[in-house]
Amino acid sequence: MLNLLKNFVLLIIGLLLSINLLAQKDGNSILSKLKSYNKTQEIDTLLNASEFYAEINPDTALLLGKLAMEMSNRLDDKKAIALSSRRVADAYYYKNEYLKAIDYYLQSATTEYQASNDSSGFLAERLTDAAIVIRN
User: Fold this and answer.
1) How far apart are CA 108 and CA 106, in angstroms?
2) pTM
3) Mean pLDDT of the chain
4) 21: three-class secondary structure by DSSP
């Protein structure tokens, strides 16, 4: 079931990317490239698409972010889990679901800290994101 959902989402991403890139001569090459991606590249593609859609279609961004998070958890990739949490938080922010956004920003900060044992940059950024949400 998850593979079917994953393939469906990747197909949608490919179609959306090809629609957005109609000015390019070979938009269909994106679809063929998606099939050759490894798991890390698939996660990166999902995260980039989630970032792109956060403001214009937060529901799509949320779906893509959560799928990336699930795949990242399977690989136990802490950096990707942290970034996935941020993308999910951004989607919730644009959906005006601020408490959920704060939860995911804090989850992102915690996971990044666990991955790098350095709180100087990423942790401060996520806490700032959470503070902005609270301010709104």
Assistant:
1) 5
2) 0.70
3) 79
4) coil
